[in-house]
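Risk register update: the risk of archive-format incompatibility is retired. Evidence:
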Amino acid sequence: MTIHSIESQVISDIKGGFRLKVSILDLGMYIAGFTARYSDKNESGLWIQPPATKVGEKWISVVEFNKNKVIWEEIEKSIIEAVNMYTIPDNSYEELTQEEINLSISKAVDNFNRNSPGNH
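Archived output:
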């Protein structure tokens, strides 16, 4: 059951993944700076992190979530869907298995990393 109205949008490619903006529409919150990086340690194939900023030698969370709450599940689901739509054209991801989706995400990340400035 969905409790919140959440939309995620891929803003840019980053090394090893994607930067996203998450809009929690029913709360009037718009949070930029989420990252989703390819990871075979997660069932979805993505490691999702909320925004953080580096202060000195430490990374400080800009916004924190209790990852045992429904809102975090809904944010993760929204981010995964946004990445799928971004990396797999024409919404054909709805017909793919999770393994095929993970492979497509991995290929997109690898292609980005190969073609990024400084990686030649």
